[in-house]
Amino acid sequence: MSLSNPPVGVPIVIALQSTGEFTGLAGSGLGEFLAQELRARRERYPNSRFVLYVRAAAGLAELARAAAAACDIAVLDPPAGALVPLCHLLIDVSVGAAQDSQASEEDSIEFEAELKVEVIRLQWPAGSEPLRQVTSLFGVDGAVSDHLVHTAAENRLMMRTDRFNRDAQAQLPVPTFPDDGELTIEGLYARADALALAFQHKSHLAFRLIFALACLAAVSYGCFLAAANSRVELQDELIGGYIALIVTSYCVFLYARRLDLHSRFVEYRALAEGLRVQHYWHACGLTRSAAACYLIRQPLDYQWIRLALWRVAAANPPVTRPAGQQDPVATGVLQGWIDDQQQYFARSQARSARVEVRMRYLVAGIFLLGVCASLTIMFARHLPVSKPIQLRLSLVSFLCPGVSAAIVALVTKLGLLYQASHYGRMQAIYDQARRRLRRQPAETAGRIGIALREEALLENESWAQFRRERGLDEPTSPLRRPW
Asked: Is the CB of residue 455 less than 8 Å from the CB of residue 429?
């Protein structure tokens, strides 16, 4: 029974490679093993299309194609180079332990804390030795087995990719796509950008709601303390309101954490910005993928973004032009991108600067109000201030410093101050590129474009890392530190 393909999205890539010559494949059960592995992945991640790369001996390649056909998985020609950094799952089959070790190490020598790919290594017996299998889960080798063992179909890279495809299918209309089921760079960017904006709105709404509930809880508790000496009948209502507000803020926090709103926003924005650069590389005729210099040293959770960038670049190669032929379109495309981005970051930097100034004045005003209330209480015996007024002033002096500190924490948590400096740096980068493009001849447009895009990817990577470290915290107090 074949599995139906979901709507178009970011595909999940599985690769099969082999070294050596294989005999006795007919009765080995390897074909059934491959079919069951592919089917288990398809059933575990039903929202994504699957692609299989085969770089193996003829007999093994036939088994893999048959298994892929049974699971309705497209088999494509593998790209040049190592397959390890380009797939979600690598199945490596080799003859003998020595050849297997040499081949796999040559393909995956990376000095990283995480290998960032799941690898199933099968050592085919060279003589009378039994078949051996090693499962490597993102750099951690599993136990060696003398028979084929199906590992759990849990794959962090596949899970993130499938989650993006599920979100895109749930929140966005299914687009029309060609027969090969591949999205264009522009189509995938539109979906990633729309999802990033949607989850940004939800994430910021959760931040602000938790902040507002925590501040209201502090006000309720302050009123409870103020009423302890005057109106005892209100104490139960005030402390009950305080508890209800704290419980509600925790419910909002747990809901946002369960949906992982903040991580989705950061990851989808990082994908969209990488696709933006890939679009202009494609328009300028460059065959390089943005994944080559983007999110390289980031955690494993971001590896699915690099795989998506690499796949969309491989599926949408630029139009080849004769060698030595000048392309005036590339210069125009680059100029349009620079002008558009410079205007965007100029507007965003000005808006962030205004927000920063307003927040500074707001925090200073609230803090000074609390200081004035405290001074009034200190000199209350020399002023005609009644006892109820003194109680209200004590409440104001108690709340104002806390509220001002909470606003600073919220601004820091949302990265508003960082955004102002980030937009300023990006504006300066595009301004320099604009001036150089006007001064330099058209032949240097390609060099300027490559340098500009690498700087843009580096800055976007820094932004993603900054925002990733500032997720939702438990609403224990409105005065909680923002880091």
From this structure: yes
Highest mean pLDDT among 102-116, 186-200, 396-410, 425-439: 186-200
pLDDT digits (tens, 9 = 90+) for 57-81: 888 888 889 999 988 898 988 888 7
| Per-residue buried b or exposed e for 225-248, using 16+ beta carbons within 10 Å of the residue's own CB | ebbeeeeeeeeeebbebbeebbeb
pLDDT band, very low/low/confident/very high, at 105 (cuts 50, 70, 90): very low
Q: Beta partners for 136?
A: 119, 141
Q: How far apart are alpha carbons 355 and 434 in whole angstroms?
A: 28
Dihedral of CA atoms 62, 63, 66, 67 in degrees, nearest 10, equals -150
Q: What pTM value is reported for the model?
A: 0.80
C-beta of residue 76 within 8 angstroms of C-beta of residue 100:
no
Please list the alpha-helical segments (H only) found in 137-260: 156-171, 185-227, 235-259
Q: Please give the structure tokens belonging to residue 72.
A: 């309705």
Mean pLDDT calculated for residue range 94-106: 51
Strand pairing partners for 137?
Answer: 118, 140
The DSSP string of 419-456 is HHHHHHHHHHHHHHHHHHHHHS-GGGHHHHHHHHHHHH
H-only helix segments in 9-155 = 30-44, 58-70, 97-107
CB 133 within 8 A of CB 64: no
Q: Which of 78, 54, 74 is nearest to 64 (CA)?
A: 54
Structure tokens at 108: 């995956």
Predicted local distance difference test score (pLDDT) of residue 104: 44
Query: Closest by alpha carbon to 226, among 400, 388, 401?
Result: 388
Which structure tokens are listed for 341? 């981005």
Q: Supply the DSSP string of 373-389, one letter for each residue.
A: HHHHHHTGGGTT--HHH
CA–CA separation, 83 and 26 (whole Å): 26
Range scoring the smallest mean pLDDT among 4-8, 54-58, 301-305: 4-8
| Nearest one of 205, 171, 449, 469 to 327, comparing CA atoms | 449
CA angle 408, 414, 415 (to 5 degrees): 90
The edge-to-edge listing of strands for the beta sheet with 140-141 is 74-76, 50-55, 12-19, 89-95, 118-124, 132-137, 140-141
Provide the 8-state DSSP code for 91.
E
Q: List the structure tokens of 109.
A: 């020598």
State pLDDT tens for residues 148-189: 877 777 888 899 999 999 998 887 665 544 445 567 888 888
Residue type, 71: C
b/e sequence 344-371, b meaning 16+ C-beta within 10 Å = ebbebbeebeebbeebeeebeebbebbe
